[in-house]
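in:
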């Protein structure tokens, strides 16, 4: 039996493709971005611990090969409409400034769970607040979700998933 995951969006719903701002571009992460993604992840290292959970040590020990596999998996998820990963890139497309993950959740109170991080380069350029604000506004206005969870941000990790759910 083939592996099946339900679409995060229904077949008639449009997947938002990009968000352009003066200082950055948010677009789907592709296999061609693997090197830029690896550079952003490894330069930001320990600061990214806890992005996906309180005990999450990612990206500790991440190899360039494993990162390429992860990026390709995110690309395939996007094609399948299972989940969506976007890279935030400088306007020249030469530096990754962060990532945004729009993922399904089995927590019935929410339509999706959203995670994001910014790279050290984004911090150095002073783009952190702009990227975070733009991502949240984009999720609120361009996506068809009514209830979005931001675990580890608006929802403390100790409250995620909510009691009585089976988690993600």
């Amino acid at each position: 039996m083939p592996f099946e995951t339900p679409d995060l969006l229904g077949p008639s719903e449009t997947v938002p493709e990009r968000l352009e701002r003066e200082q950055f571009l948010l677009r789907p992460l592709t296999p061609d971005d693997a090197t830029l993604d690896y550079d952003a992840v490894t330069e930001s290292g320990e600061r990214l611990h806890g992005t996906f959970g309180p005990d999450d040590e990612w990206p500790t020990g991440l190899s360039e090969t494993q990162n390429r596999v992860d990026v390709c998996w995110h690309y395939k998820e996007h094609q399948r409409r299972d989940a969506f990963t976007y890279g935030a890139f400088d306007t020249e497309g030469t530096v990754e400034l962060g990532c945004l993950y729009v993922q399904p959740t089995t927590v019935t109170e929410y339509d999706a769970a959203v995670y994001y991080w910014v790279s050290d380069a984004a911090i150095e350029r002073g783009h952190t607040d702009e990227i975070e604000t733009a991502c949240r506004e984009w999720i609120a206005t361009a996506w068809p979700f009514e209830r979005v969870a931001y675990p580890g941000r608006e929802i403390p990790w100790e409250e995620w998933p909510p009691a009585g759910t089976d988690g993600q």
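note: Residues 1-5 have pLDDT under 50 and may be disordered.
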